[in-house]
Design brief:
Layout lengths: L1 E5 L7 E5 L9 E11 L1 H10 L9 E8 L12 E5 L8 E5 L3 E3 L6 H4 L2 H15 L6 E5 L4 H12 L3 E5 L6 H6 L4 E3 L11 E6 L4 H8 L1 E9 L25 E4 L9 H13 L7 E6 L3 H9 L6 E5 L2
Helix pairs in contact: 3-4, 3-7
């Protein structure tokens, strides 16, 4: 089969090559990949730092061509969306049946391929907060892939959503996705009504400010660190003064939280196919242009998700 492999001598560290077909384990299905999406972590770290000759890629949508030998998962011919630690950027991938969701017949695999890491993280981070109906939720890094899904899902779940973005030009678009208010300076959070939960995707000063914005028993889910900065809490920030006690900071990583993920991906795919969830695909091209697409995403020139189709 053809696959994009890591080649540090090639432009963008990627080369389209012939590799052996994957051999699924008994609990895995073999998937013919139709589309895959790029994530920031892949273009910033996985590809430039990865082992030469390996096939990268977390998210992909396609069709089951061989069902799992142990009888789990969907049958051959079923459209699916999949996630794994590697192997998505290829014509075929072997995937654990618990790491795939079924897709409505006729749905475009391109937008669906954006869901696993970004929307899956957003959904499960919101669940860590607890009930959000009628409550206030903060999303930092709201203009990024996970952030846009998080604010949409929080709004669909009945929350009052505050979106924090460093780019004022994104404010109108974030409101269109469901944000009730948009702020561009972390310091401004101190002057807003406290929030019951936060999906924090930036780290550094944003995490410190988001923690300070929590109300009593509030939960901050640290699911990203795009700033690359460490956190420094001022003296007294963790005292729990002014009756805001028991505020929590929890971390989250999707690939370590696989139980029930297939059902979540199925639900997210149906939501997207109905038009109730907008993946915000901003770049879509042939997979032979993967190096170009990765460079555009890494350079922050893609105001949404990047999708590549295998033709």
């Amino acid at each position: 089969m053809k696959a994009l492999t890591i080649d540090h001598s090639a432009p963008g560290h990627l080369a389209l090559t012939e590799v052996a077909d994957p051999e699924p384990a008994a609990h895995q299905a073999l998937i013919q990949v139709h589309s895959f999406s790029l994530n920031a972590g892949e273009v910033h770290h996985v590809v430039p730092e990865g082992e030469a000759g390996t096939v990268p890629g977390w998210d992909a949508a396609g069709v089951v061509v061989r069902a799992a030998a142990d009888g789990t998962g969907p049958v051959a011919g079923t459209p699916v969306v999949t996630v794994g630690a590697e192997g998505a950027w290829a014509e075929l991938r072997a995937v654990d049946t618990g790491m795939m969701g079924t897709v409505p017949e006729g749905a475009d695999p391109g937008p669906i391929s954006t869901l696993p890491v970004a929307a899956g993280t957003a959904l499960r981070a919101l669940r860590r907060i607890g009930p959000i109906l009628g409550r206030r939720v903060l999303v930092t890094g709201a203009g990024g892939g996970v952030g846009r899904f998080a604010l949409q899902l929080a709004a669909l779940g009945g929350a009052h959503v505050t979106a924090l973005t460093s780019d004022p030009a994104k404010a109108e678009g974030l409101r269109a996705l469901g944000a009730h208010e948009v702020v561009t300076d972390p310091a401004a959070l101190a002057h807003l009504e406290p929030v019951h939960g936060a999906v924090e995707l930036v780290g550094g000063a944003h995490l410190v400010a988001a923690h300070g914005a929590l109300t009593e028993n509030g939960v901050l889910v640290a699911a990203g660190h795009s700033s690359g900065d460490g956190e420094r809490f001022p003296f007294g920030a963790l005292f729990g003064n002014d009756r805001r006690h028991n505020r929590q900071i929890v971390t989250y990583y999707l690939l370590d939280d696989a139980v029930g993920l297939g059902a979540d991906l199925t639900w997210l795919a149906a939501l997207t196919a109905r038009g109730d969830l907008d993946p915000q695909v901003a770049l879509r091209t042939d997979w032979t242009r993967a190096a170009h697409a990765a460079a555009e995403l890494a350079g922050r020139r893609v105001p949404g998700k990047a999708v590549l189709d295998i033709r």
